[in-house]
Amino acid sequence: VxxxxxxxxxxRVGGNLKTLRDLAGVFREDSQRLTAExxxxxxxxxxxxxxxxxxxxxxxxxxxxxxxxxxxxxRLEALRPEEDWAGGETALTTLGEEIDHIQTALAVLCxxxxx
Amino acid sequence: xxxxxxxxxxxxxxxxxxxxxxxxxEVVGTGDGEExxxxxxxxxxxxxxxxxxxxxxxxxxxxxxxxRSLARAQPTYLIMLTAKDGKANVIAGLEAxxxxxxxxxxxxxxxxxxxxxxxxxxxxxxxxxxRVTELEIALSGAQKMEAIGRLAGGxxxxxxxxxxxxxxxxxxxxxxxRKDDACYEAIHTIRQAGERGAGLTRQLLAFSRKQLLNPIVxxxxxxxxxxxxxxxxxxxxxxxxxxxxxxxxRPTKADPGQIEQVIMNLVVNARDAMPxxxxxxxxxxxxxxxxxxxxxxxxxxxGPHVLLAVRDTGCGMDKEIMSHIFEPFFTxxxxxxxxxxxxxxxxxxxxxxxxxxxxxxEPGRGTTFRVYLPQAAVAPLQLKPSTDGPQxxxxxxxxxxxxxxxxxxxxxxxxxxASHYTVxxxxxxxxxxxxxxxxxxxxxxxxxxxxMPHMNGRQLADQLAPARPELxxxxxxxxxxxxxxxxxxxxxxxxxxxKPFTTCQLVHKVREVLDGNPC
Lengths: 115, 519
Hints:
The complex is a heterodimer of chains A (115) and B (519). With 115 residues, chain A is mainly alpha-helical. Chain A has helices at residues 6-12, 17-44, 47-63, 67-78, 85-114. In chain A, helix 4 (67-78) packs antiparallel against helix 5 (85-114). Chain B is α/β, with parallel strands linked by helices and 519 residues long. Helices cover 45% and strands 19% of the residues of chain B. The longest helix of chain B has 69 residues, at 108-176. A five-stranded parallel β-sheet of chain B has the order 2-1-3-4-5, with helices on both faces. In chain B, strands 7-9-10-12-11 form a five-stranded mixed β-sheet. Chain B is elongated and about 105 Å long. In chain B, helix 8 packs antiparallel against helix 11. The interface between A and B is medium-sized, with 20 and 19 residues.
């Protein structure tokens, strides 16, 4: 799985698997909500809605040391009204893929540790 | 320790909440900047807050600015925890008032260390703020006492002039009247009331530190031992009096009569706190006050001191009463049972002696007064018991009397003339110089008030000296405030008569000075 640093993630929760599972649940729900907000903002070409959602998501994916996902949120956060919004769609696609990867990796990690 | 997390990102809020609780902190969390502001401005605000930058309502930077604008002593340590990284953002966050700046994603151990640093700093700030508050309270108490002292001193000065006249003329009338005269008893009562008034003004002057002291190097243990017998009589049989005297006690410099007054007032105060009986302990010791102690106790000076502690097992008092006990006329005794001047007198004497007094008490747990007097550099003198002076004697010399208060001048003139002195009278220094110029015969004594308009007593004496080198000088005043005491008037070879004086004291002092007896 790309862009996921297992050891970094475990260190950030101090090896506490319960915390990790709780966070995985929050990440699943909030990343879906924020991705949807970004999509709507892109369609409406509304940077005021886009930037906070991208910023929040940047912090979350950054927690997992997911560098490609972080790059995608940075591109979204930096979009200007007069710029190429198609680049935003590309970034969102990448972000969506990376979030899927993170969720998969998280699920594996949680299962592994439970086992 | 409570920590506020202001973070709209539920993911981070949840993680911080879990982590901080795991580390033993109490956590209050919000995702809204406005709500965070309400929590931070509250009286019981958390001492440390972790703030996200981008939040609905108020952002983290604005929160920092608002917290820093609060005028309160209670410190709050602010950590910005944000995905807004980069040097410019870090600088902007710190400039907004954040104490620390941690970029997301943060390192767990680094966060823990930074929290510990923050809480250590906020703990130090809290201690400092509490200390500053304590000092401010102590300072305002000292300033209040200073103001009351000035007021009391001014009142005492004016009363002393009045009492000099009332008592003096009463004395004169009493010597002229037969005891069976219809007026004798009435005048005698006036004289007694005047004497009580003089006692009160003496205490007021003591409180306002405007007494004329005669400090000598003395051994406090000797003083305590000398007064012990009298103290036992004062306290009665239900109260045990114990003394614990430091055998190698350092010498101190003070007026022995005034320190005896201090001991007596403190012991009487202790006695009155123990109506059912109890124990009073008088203790002496050597104490070195350090800079920290002096800084924390306005009026105290660092250095070696002699300690006199008076401890009782009486009813004690609460903090509210303790904050007033040295104020004149403050008393917890029922009306008519106390003047409220005993401890005020103690306070004044100790302060004027460059010492310092503290009180420690709790309701039901007794009271301890601690008097600190500076150590003297030389060995103490042997204290001699006081003796009455010789009987007033009459004379035939010429006295130049200078006094701006007409009634006092009249009294002094009448008393001196009754003792066969020739009295030349002047209302002030200029008039006195004129009188001296016009008087061809010898003037043996200048009896002058100290503080007068245009020219004070000392200046007058200096101006008369070249023409009359043999002239002796006796100063009188109802006021011995610092401005006078600093003058050479009160050097050991000068003579001084404190108002209110009795006719007897005046005649006695005049004779003493004319005969060249030591002051």
